[in-house]
Amino acid sequence: MIKSYLIILFSLVITTQSWAQFGFTEQDNSVNPSSWQASVEKKSDSIFTVLIKAQVDKGWHLPSQTELKEDENGPIPTEFNFKYVTEVLEKIGRTKEPDGITKFDEIFKTDLTYFENQVTFEQDFRVKTKQGSLDLEILFMICNDEMCLPQDQKRFNFEVDNFNLVVAETKAIEIQSKDKTLTEALKLDLKGESEFQINSKEEQDSNFTIFLLGFVGGLIALLTPCVFPMIPLTVSFFTKGARTKKLGLINAIMYGVFIFLIYLLLSVPFHLLDSVNPEILNSISTNPTLNIIFFVIFIVFAFSFFGYYEITLPNSWSSRLDQKATSVGGIIGIFFMAITLALVSFSCTGPILGSLLGGSLTADGGATMLTFGMGGFGLALALPFALFALFPNWLNSLPKSGGWLNTVKVVLGFLELGLAFKFLSNADLVEHWGILKREIFIGIWILIGLAMSLYLFGKIRFPHDSPLQKLSKGRIFVGVVTLAFVVYLIPGLTNSSNANLKFLSGFPPPLFYSIYNKETEGPLGLKAYKDFDKGLVAAKSQNKPILLDFTGWACVNCRKMEEQVWSVPEVFEIIKNDYILISLYVDDKAKLNEENRFNYERTNGSVKKIRTVGDKWATFQTLNFRNNSQPYYVLLSPELEILNETIGYEPSSKSYFAWLKAGLENFENKKGKTE
């Protein structure tokens, strides 16, 4: 029965595994109190120094290049990435910086080093040829005592001209009068900012929650045919093969520690990606191409679990590592044994790790969240080897290997299949293809659930299944639960009031993305304006306050808010009757008409091309509210007075209703004063 409960738990966990995310868009640090300049000084005939000067406004500071320790939190360090050809230039040493200010930060509870007012960084290069180029990308954050603005970037280009290194003349994008006009149109003349807080901090999922989800994924991996039989064999090898009982115990524990470290290290490359370009990982949640790639990968994983083929790494890798483990011995040999286990079990753990990867990287936590998830996964795999070494009598209580292990794999295959369509749905929503409308998506999940039930009841067999003599209680239990889930999904195929499947909020497409004709394209049938100017006109004509909803097609927490919080009668009624709802989709890839496309010049001099609907509303959000997370809610009067503090994801319908009610009361009070 334990196996059955774990299967059910995993089916719930992996499908909620940080699809609860905030949809990120291109960062637009329009409120950026810094400026940058680059120059070159000649030190000798072949040695040149690149000087990067940063000017920071009063009250703000620039973090140093000092990397934070693993157990420390803080702003992302300033980073200089130089791109050049080694035959042209040779980089000499690291980028130098002055001492700066080191001070204990009350928010992050650690010592931080930063620069105020003005700072100059230096990097030496040796010129080796007559002609060539050098590109510099600076990644930086600007902070004050209360917050850090989203990470921004600055680029400079240099060229080698007749053995001299000089700053290249860059052809700036010319800002036309049309660009200035459309930029000004995005700016709101907000009132009441001093009275109510504009929340510019981005919410993040709990890393502990992700760690816990990874841990559960690791527990499920233990129940696969590639891993489970290894537990008694490996523990017995260490406890009986060692010279002393104490040494065997230590070796088994070290084996578990190394397994944990190996899976933790798998997340390191994603931190490197994150440091080069933080938007690489965050863009996954709304990038159609990447979502389709994940869809294909999960389909491949699913059929691997069904037993039609195995996804394995080259046998030569595991053979060589096994030989190393045998020949070297000691701690190093145990380390190679741990790597060998990771390789030979890949056909079972790979798809689960793929789910962890997809779930973590489509969330706003990026590489950090992935590290916590991998850590939890590795710990779950490692614990049995240490615990059974400490308590070897427990080995007698383990169930024997058998056909049930393959059953676990096949069930996981069905879950992977269902998750695959979530990725395809993300791409479909963002691009408006209309392929996976809500009812079609739910219908596919129903078919997958029915197929899984038929399998559990022995009506379907896969290549590696043993002949089923008798249905176990575990298979019957999970089969019944799966059928109950299918029955729960059926109302989602209809156009009835029961079609709002609250338990699954955020997974299927929104209710208005339907095969049925809907009165409106707003959540829950609400009238929602998808253009701010049109919504503002309606608010003025009806003399109602505005509920400004920054949302995204691929934003799961946005769907949860709509289907779990907005659907509560008192919340629904106050939005419907007392507010003008304006929903702006920041990840909408629909192209703007040519006359509405423009180049937006940030205050730091860089230019962002506004080409899609999402580009426009994402810039609108960061320009006016210094925030780029979704969901994000603002209450405004028709005169653009802020009526309450801005908020993000709020799962409590009571708190959200109280927030709406307070905004409405403030609107009535302001209206009464003007009258």
UniProtKB/TrEMBL annotation:
<protein>
    <submittedName>
        <fullName>Thioredoxin family protein</fullName>
    </submittedName>
</protein>
<dbReference type="Pfam" id="PF11412">
    <property type="entry name" value="DsbD_N"/>
</dbReference>
<feature type="transmembrane region" description="Helical">
    <location>
        <begin position="474"/>
        <end position="493"/>
    </location>
</feature>
<feature type="signal peptide">
    <location>
        <begin position="1"/>
        <end position="20"/>
    </location>
</feature>
<dbReference type="InterPro" id="IPR036929">
    <property type="entry name" value="DsbDN_sf"/>
</dbReference>
<keyword id="KW-0201">Cytochrome c-type biogenesis</keyword>
<feature type="domain" description="Thiol:disulfide interchange protein DsbD N-terminal">
    <location>
        <begin position="45"/>
        <end position="158"/>
    </location>
</feature>
<keyword id="KW-1133">Transmembrane helix</keyword>
<dbReference type="InterPro" id="IPR028250">
    <property type="entry name" value="DsbDN"/>
</dbReference>
<feature type="transmembrane region" description="Helical">
    <location>
        <begin position="403"/>
        <end position="421"/>
    </location>
</feature>
<keyword id="KW-0472">Membrane</keyword>
<dbReference type="InterPro" id="IPR036249">
    <property type="entry name" value="Thioredoxin-like_sf"/>
</dbReference>
<dbReference type="Pfam" id="PF13899">
    <property type="entry name" value="Thioredoxin_7"/>
</dbReference>
<feature type="transmembrane region" description="Helical">
    <location>
        <begin position="208"/>
        <end position="231"/>
    </location>
</feature>
<feature type="transmembrane region" description="Helical">
    <location>
        <begin position="441"/>
        <end position="462"/>
    </location>
</feature>
<keyword id="KW-0812">Transmembrane</keyword>
<feature type="transmembrane region" description="Helical">
    <location>
        <begin position="292"/>
        <end position="309"/>
    </location>
</feature>
<dbReference type="InterPro" id="IPR003834">
    <property type="entry name" value="Cyt_c_assmbl_TM_dom"/>
</dbReference>
<feature type="transmembrane region" description="Helical">
    <location>
        <begin position="252"/>
        <end position="272"/>
    </location>
</feature>
<feature type="transmembrane region" description="Helical">
    <location>
        <begin position="369"/>
        <end position="391"/>
    </location>
</feature>
<feature type="domain" description="Cytochrome C biogenesis protein transmembrane">
    <location>
        <begin position="210"/>
        <end position="425"/>
    </location>
</feature>
<dbReference type="Pfam" id="PF02683">
    <property type="entry name" value="DsbD_TM"/>
</dbReference>
<feature type="transmembrane region" description="Helical">
    <location>
        <begin position="330"/>
        <end position="357"/>
    </location>
</feature>
<keyword id="KW-0732">Signal</keyword>
